[in-house]
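Page 47, continued from p. 46.
Same chain as before, 291 aa.
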Amino acid sequence: MTETNITEFDLIFLSYDEPNAEKNWADLVGKAPWAKRVHGVKGFDAAHRACAEQSETDWFITVDGDNTVRKEFFDITVNVDAATNPRQCFSWNGLNSINGLCYGNGGLKLWSKQFVLSMNTHENADDPRKSVDFCWEQDYRQMYHTYSDVWNSSSPYQAFRVGFREGVKLSLNRGDRVSAEMMKTVLHPVNLRNLKIWSTVGAHVENGLWAIYGTRMGWYEMCNPEWDHTVVRDYDWFQNFWTEIKARQPNLQQEVADLGEKIALYSKIKLPILDEMASAFFRETMELRNE
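Result:
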């Protein structure tokens, strides 16, 4: 295998409706003037296929619309074993600006075109386990280092939606549904930790409480075995759902507390309520831990 500098691959900024997308796009172009962009393609699978079709290299990097790339990313090299395994995806960690978590959610990804053009996930899923995420694909490789920052609370809707999605995805066990009473023992310990943090940390950040609210609501819905969790891949469903929520003007503090009690009732997992000071303290501590 040969080491290839990351700048040898096409770099594609992938945006849909993120309120901070233009700001982040300008930041990326300032660091990488060769960057390309795919915008407004509906559907997770479809959007990534559009990136593959635009790429002029056999491997390409995607930068999500809520992401800013750290300069040191452009100095790294990577082994792409295209000869023996042409279907791969490398994912690097992104540092979450709301709660300090640092994992593959929202991070930079290096895809082989063959991987993307042959995968069927989200709206094109041929396996229920692939209906809401890419990360359970066989050739998906999670890397250790962190090379981007994820800014996903620029509006109440953005924060709520990302929280709701994580509340759903982190409640799954490698894509499979888990009964509420088994979540405490069956979910991967790191996923359960991340789920708890998404559900409690963020009150110190503008719109952070919306992310907490969304996470708890998504988690609570997952406690209902009859609820169809695949709706989180549907942009139109989310927009309609959000319209309903905004219309009733929820009391976030109270509803966050109420959802915590309901989750504890079904899963026996208790969730604290952190004030702004405690939330900021935890966020800073998590960032130190990620160094």
